[in-house]
Amino acid sequence: xxxxxxxxxxxxxxxxxxxxxxxxxxxxxxxxxxxxxxxxxxxxxxxxxxxxxxxxxxxxxxxxxxxxxxxxxxxxxxxxxxxxxxxxxxxxxxxxxxxxxxxxxxxxxxxxxxxxxxxxxxxxxxxxxxxxxxxxxxxxxxxxxxxxxxxxxxxxxxxxxxxxxxxxxxxxxxxxxxxxxxxxxxxxxxxxxxxxxxxxxxxxxxxxxxxxxxxxxxxxxxxxxxxxxxxxxxxxxxxxxxxxxxxxxxxxxxxxxxxxxxxxxxxxxxxxxxxxxxxxxxxxxxxxxxxxxxxxxxxxxxxxxxxxxxxxxxxxxxxxxxxxxxx
Length: 327
Ligand code: NAI
What we know:
This protein is of the alpha/beta class. It is 42% helix and 19% strand. It folds into 2 domains: 5-154, 3-Layer(aba) Sandwich (Rossmann fold); 157-317, L-2-Hydroxyisocaproate Dehydrogenase, Chain A, domain 2, CATH 3.90.110. It has helices at 15-25, 47-60, 74-77, 98-119, 133-142, 157-171, 211-223, 225-233, 239-254, 301-323; strands spanning 5-10, 36-41, 65-71, 83-86, 125-128, 152-154, 178-179, 182-184, 192-194, 199-200, 203-204, 262-267, 279-287, 290-293. The chain has a 9-stranded mixed beta sheet, with helices on both faces. A 3-stranded antiparallel beta sheet has the order 7-10-11, with helices on one face. A hairpin with a 2-residue loop joins β10 (199-200) and β11. α1 packs across α9, α4 (98-119) packs across α5 (133-142) and α6 packs antiparallel against α7. The mean pLDDT is 97. The structure holds 1,4-dihydronicotinamide adenine dinucleotide (NAI).
């Protein structure tokens, strides 16, 4: 076994944290042979709860878990970090305007971005889960000018997995029959799950479902699944979000399977007409520890309009945080 990989998790005492940490420590983030050292960042009021979770982690006696640090200081939490999972965020509460929400999250993701810039390992890779994930990632990235921009990503893997599962159920096929699924745009209700490039047993998915189902059932079900989970469970998705975060980072380190791709919100290089620098979801493959946007996919007028709508929302969020001086 080599040197442990340092994984920093923010919001470690939250719901997703509880579903995430035990699986990281059991090898589901990086692989079954990679030892990890966990660094848990929480706000002062939640440090004690994080300590309780750490006690349980100890009690699992995970062979791969090399140690756990807990702190409320971002500089310490990210010191030497190889992986940053930015889960903790300020949720929207009743009566809160969008500007207030962005401001509150700017106060979290700005300092964390700077702490990553100043203290993380040179190879640091960051996944932002906390919402609004794309724009929080943009804020963090803008405070880390010394870190290559492509190390900052946001999570649309849960949306991707939801799309796989909905389509598989509709066609009564295993999820493994589906390849080349894409979520485009923002991790929000405007996201666009694309069946015109997805394949089921090697054939275009959109040709195997009727258009009305695609438009009126599939897309809204995937896009509004988060709200449906809250409605049913009385709490937002946690285990499935943690699972998607593990999938995202696992693929980043270990590569995506040959002949397939996944969905990642990453810094646009201008591909598919998405303005450069915006953190938007794309079809992407991972090779050698780097994401590459899949190029040259056909985008029909229906898809174009959906992608543009979601990207417009991202531009508005970017302009709003710029106006607030957060980037
Ligand atoms: P939660 O409220 O259970 O936990 C959040 C934790 O973050 C709390 O323990 C809180 O003390 C902590 N926290 C707040 N500010 C912090 C800071 N500055 N530094 C460190 N920790 C801080 O929330 P939950 O359910 O774990 O969700 C976390 C985030 O993930 C939310 O923003 C949620 O909207 C988002 N989410 C994103 C998904 C995606 O697909 N991208 C899917 C599901 C949730």
